[in-house]
UniProtKB/TrEMBL annotation:
FAD dependent oxidoreductase domain residues: 7-347
SUPFAM superfamilies cross-referenced by the UniProt entry: FAD-linked reductases, C-terminal domain, FAD/NAD(P)-binding domain
A GO term, aspect molecular function: oxidoreductase activity
Highest taxon, organism lineage: Bacteria
Lineage per the UniProt record: Bacteria, Pseudomonadati, Pseudomonadota, Alphaproteobacteria, Acetobacterales
UniProt keyword list: Oxidoreductase
Name this protein carries in UniProt: FAD dependent oxidoreductase
GO cellular component terms, A-Z: cytoplasm
EC number: 1.-.-.-
Length: 373
């Protein structure tokens, strides 16, 4: 069997794997990106597109810092990709809001936001709880059902598909090799010596990154790692293009550059079922119409579901193998939000050969399980 050698192998061609591969290639490492193809569950194609901070990291300040850092890295990443590829990612970071449809929701949200501010400590966490006329000036067309909103200046949104295209184009433009329809079959692992058989060829490298989403659960043990990820189904509705515009994204809805609205944020434990439930769709549409009554006049033109990659506690898992140094894993459900840190901060750590101490809280060791890493 033919053998090819690289400086790094990345298994998984979605948003997480593509961002890491782009960062590695930009570091000067000859990188191969192995992509299973359309038979994969592909969380990237169902991503809602938020670059979101304000709901991330409650009770986990290390995750809040990581997410904030990624939002701060996003403008540089978008500019770099545009300069190299000519592809815009649709980044718009005017801040964002979470809508509260009752006084109870408003008070609960206020308590959560204040807890995040306290947990941030010296790192800081800016937010405002906004009611009444000020909220309606900020968001024209806001419905009377809305008791108020939480706002942070860090939030924004982008086009997931444009981002994925730009990352792939940037990666190959720098000399990286992208191999589609290449499921990782047999493999072997030794310290700084990894081999993966895919598409009839054996690929070797001293570094390997597992970024295969839900597939990491089975792949990780081959390399002395542990990735206890599970699927969480989310559904999204898309409206026709609207003349009225939303000046900033919300947790459960955003307006694309083309004018259509994306409505979503459902969470279902449905295993690997990619079906859709009308009662979930109805609840998503109802909440959107209560928030902005004018949305009820729009036609729905598309709907889909996708599977998020979730750890038991909902936080990302980043790890390196003790048994096989040079093997890493990256698992998260926020491929758009975290693209900035994956390309600009995580990839340089992997290129250097070790995760920095700040990454220790993200290790799968936090689940107190016996594994080989």
């Amino acid at each position: 069997m033919r053998t090819e050698s690289y400086d790094a192998l990345v298994v998984g061609g979605g948003l997480v794997g593509a961002a890491i591969a782009y960062g590695l290639q930009r570091q000067g490492l000859a990188t191969l990106l192995l992509d299973e193809g359309d038979i994969a569950f592909r969380a990237s194609r169902g991503n809602f597109g938020l670059v979101w901070v304000q709901s991330k990291g409650l009770g986990a300040p290390h995750y809040q810092r990581w997410t904030r850092g990624s939002a701060a890295e996003w403008p540089a990443l978008a500019a770099d990709l545009a300069a190299r590829t000519g592809i815009g990612t649709g980044l718009h970071q005017p801040g964002g809001v979470h809508l509260c449809l009752s006084e109870q929701e408003f008070e609960q949200r206020a308590a959560q936001m204040e807890q995040m501010r306290r947990e941030a400590g010296n790192f800081g966490f800016d937010y405002r709880m906004i009611r009444g006329a000020e909220a309606r000036d900020m968001l024209p067309g806001l419905g009377p059902q809305v008791a108020g909103v939480s706002w942070t200046p860090y939030d924004g949104h982008a086009s997931p598909l444009s981002l994925l295209r730009a990352l792939h184009s940037g990666f190959t433009g720098l000399g990286g090799r992208y191999l589609p329809n290449a499921r990782a079959e047999r493999s072997s692992a030794a310290p700084h010596d990894f081999a993966v058989e895919a598409a009839g060829t054996t690929y070797r490298a001293p570094r390997i990154v597992l970024a295969a989403g839900l597939g990491n659960a089975d792949l990780a043990p081959r390399f002395g790692l542990h990735a206890p990820v599970r699927p969480e189904r989310g559904q999204i509705l898309v409206t026709e293009r609207a003349r009225q515009t939303l000046p900033m994204p919300c947790t459960t809805l955003r307006q694309t550059e083309e004018g259509s609205l994306l409505l979503g944020d459902s969470k279902e434990d449905a295993g690997f079922d990619l079906g859709q439930r009308t009662e979930i769709m109805r609840a998503i549409a109802r909440r959107a119409a209560l928030a902005f009554p004018w949305i009820a006049e729009l036609n729905l033109v598309r709907a889909w579901s996708a599977l998020r990659v979730m750890a038991p506690d909902g936080l990302p898992i980043y790890d390196q193998s003790e048994r096989f140094p040079g093997a890493f894993t990256a698992n998260c459900h926020s491929g758009v939000t975290l693209a900035g840190t994956h390309a600009n901060r995580l990839a340089p750590m992997i290129a250097a050969g070790a995760l920095e101490p700040e990454m220790a809280p993200f290790s799968a060791r936090r689940f107190d399980v016996r594994h080989a890493a």
